[in-house]
């Protein structure tokens, strides 16, 4: 099932499967969201929960017991229940069931709210612990945007521009694995704001930016000025990613935590950025996209 949001400046469409954004268009029907061509990557904007990235051998030890969970968690493959659907707002809920508990032994309510105001689209996560013990989790977004938007443009004309000057050292991935090595880094910005895009930047996987000074970033063409901006104030990490096969998209990914690092063990609670939520409490985080 799909839910459509309409404002005076844009139209957004969300699929209840994964509560995933599947379209983000301006008033002249220009599509800014990646449309999921499987030749490159079939996803579009999956919700990442209760992990971001990969576990070592898909294994997590929680409360002394081993569980298996695939990359980016299970929320993106689950059907969410629409709780509220209005012209400019929709709320979707995912609750634990027997299938999720085989991977993640907690009762929870994950609510994803979309609000469309003119061309601004806010995505809010609300995680509530319905268990009787502290619940570890990570949550994040993964929206991918068309690069370029128009046929006369090229990928290499696009930049990622941070609001402030940054020194960003991204951890490398261990060869042949999805594990992060924070002892080996790649500097992508050195007291600069603009990262010029090339396909080669992503041949080793995502660029993971931690604790940036900026809380806002733009993805746009220096030729046309078209693109999107994102505010990610509630998130510790920003992932920047495109598929390795010279894909015509770039994802801007706000995360509260990141994938497993080679210097970590399999204990779920000890992973970088892990939130530990007490029973009956909730955690909220939001990011906003806007069409330039």
TrEMBL record:
GO terms for biological process: carbohydrate metabolic process. Signal peptide: none annotated. One of its GO terms (molecular function) is isomerase activity. PANTHER family: APOSPORY-ASSOCIATED PROTEIN C-RELATED (PTHR11122), GLUCOSE-6-PHOSPHATE 1-EPIMERASE (PTHR11122:SF13). This is Aldose 1-epimerase. It comes from [Clostridium] leptum DSM 753.
